[in-house]
Amino acid sequence: MSTVDTHTGPGTDDSPDTAPGDLRERAAAALERARARTATLTDVDDGELTRQHSPLMSPLVWDLAHVGSQEEIWLVRDVGGREAVRPDIDELYDAFRHPRADRPQLPLLGPAEARAYIDQVRRKALDTLDAAPLDGSPLTESAFAFGMVAQHEQQHDETMLATHQLRRGDPLLHAPAPPVRRCGAVPEEVVVPAGRFTMGTSAEPWALDNERPAHEVFVDGFAIDTFPVTCDRYAAFVDAGGYRDPRWWSADGWAYVTEKGITAPRFWRFDGGRWWRRRFGVYEPVPDDEPVLHVSFHEAEAYAAWAGRRLPTEVEWEKAARHDPETGRSRRYPWGDDDPGAEHANLGQRHLRPAPVGAYPAGASPLGVQQLIGDVWEWTSSDFAGYPGFRAFPYAEYSEVFFDGRYKVLRGGSFGTDTVAIRGTFRNWDFPIRRQIFTGFRCARDLRPGEG
Fold first, then answer.
1. Between 111-131 and 60-71, two packed helices, what is the crossing angle to 10 degrees?
2. Residue 243: pLDDT over 60
């Protein structure tokens, strides 16, 4: 793979032409949708809100006040130039100063105080949105700062959803089941021919710094799974002794699973001759046809090796998702440039589980790869790093401080990801040991001579 022709300027053919009034409406709607979801996730008794359900996660009440603190800093103070509401809590809710495991010992705002605080900040933020010019400044151009804050809150909402999965006790969240399979027989894999495509974006108005700039990439031909790996296929790896055989694991992966005694995906349990799982307080049989969930990068990599395949690189994943071979252009989403609809992908916490494979044929890419957006975050083999021409914006702590080789890239979003916080260029990252997040994967392989 080689990269050439870095593009840094705005105004490519996928750049939306949106009037200021429409931008304000879009920004207000995104902020209000995020706040409604935050309210749902924190609509629990004070004990549940302040308890730390796992040292991997913050108490829900910390996330609640943190989203308000970030909104105050960026929208009320920086964009609005308004008087600070609670400057005394800036350090308290600075995620870089306090590890999650230590946050319960901090003098956090109580539930009632936190709710009153975020309500006060939101009123001031909406006043700022009404008054701010949406051009000129990089923070206000196309309402970027408002989109950034909405994405930040939705990302914490997905983190809070993961906290709900970690808690013990009766279910507190409820949602209808996802749709059933809607597509007929399709090939198990799709061949992506060699060639150039445009990766990243310079035009998406709310894209974050690590998605920029657009740049042309040459990719060798490869094959990629039509669907994410399903639970029944992963169970075959487990039942075949995959967790007991070091042949399939990297040195780091084998050390990790042996030290921690890991023998199956997180929340799985073998009982009565079959696999069961705990899902948001419900104990149920593992469904054969859903994408496997709660596996680490190491587990995904081991399964791929056992299956005689590998994980796709981040570049391969994005080409499979965005490249349209007929036009030669890169789409915003696999299905086109339109924002996600309910027919395209399992997003936004509409369902509390991945959908069966084949449930969203309308969301397929031009090459026929399905369910690339929603359902499960997909591990790639790539380390998280900046693109050629990367520039940190609006602060280095969003992305740049994570360019240290310790994080693997995840793509595509999950059933818990909101539409504002996912697109064909969106990049997520985490440590390769992480399992509490809504992660799965699909496999790829190199082409054999004469293929493609």
1. 20
2. yes
Question: In the structure encoding, which two tokens stand for residue 99, read together?
Answer: 């590890």
**What percent of the chain lies above the pLDDT cut of 70?**
96
**CA 319 from centroid of its chain's CA atoms:** 18
DSSP state string for 70-82? HHIIIIIIIIT-P
* Same domain membership, residue 117 and residue 245: no
Please report which helix (H) or strand (E) contains residue 450, including its range. Answer: none
Report yes or no on 81 lying in a domain: yes
Q: Where are the alpha helices (DSSP H) in 184-343?
A: 231-239, 251-260, 297-306, 314-322
Residues 279 and 180 in one domain: yes
- Could you tell me if 59 and 25 lie in one domain? yes
Let me know whether 201 and 88 are in one domain.
no
Classify residue 268: in a domain, yes or no. Answer: yes
Spatial distance between the Cα atoms of 37 and 113, rounded to a whole number of angstroms? 19
Q: What is the pTM of this model?
A: 0.94
Specify if 1 maps to a domain: no
Picking from 166, 190, 218, the residue at the C-terminal end of a domain is: 166
What's the CA gap between 106 and 109, in Å, rounded? 9
5-9, 110-114, 292-296: range with lowest mean pLDDT:
5-9
Residues in contact with 112: Cβ distance below 8 Å, sequence separation at least 6, in sequence order: none
Q: How far apart (Å, rounded) are the C-alpha atoms in residues 393 and 30?
A: 21
Query: What is the domain count for the chain?
Result: 2
**Residues 240 and 123 placed together within one structural domain of the fold:** no
The percent helix, strand, coil of the chain (3-state, each to 5) is: 35, 15, 50
Residues 253 and 400 in one domain: yes
> Torsion over CA of 333, 337, 343 and 346, rounded to 10 degrees?
30
Segment 388-436, tens digit of pLDDT: 999 999 999 999 999 999 999 999 999 999 999 999 999 999 999 999 9
Residues 82 and 186 reside in one and the same domain = no
Average pLDDT over all residues of the chain: 94
Q: Stretch 363-367: mean pLDDT, rounded?
A: 97
Q: What is the mean pLDDT of residues 242-260?
A: 98
Residues 277 and 378 in one domain: yes
| Amino acid type, 313 | T
Q: What is the pLDDT of residue 189?
A: 98
pLDDT score recorded for residue 19 = 67
Q: Which two tokens stand for residue 396?
A: 């280095």
Q: What is the mean pLDDT of residues 251-272?
A: 98
- 10 located within any domain: no
Residue 97 carries which side chain, given as an amino acid letter?
A: R
pLDDT in tens, 107-128: 999 999 999 999 999 999 999 9
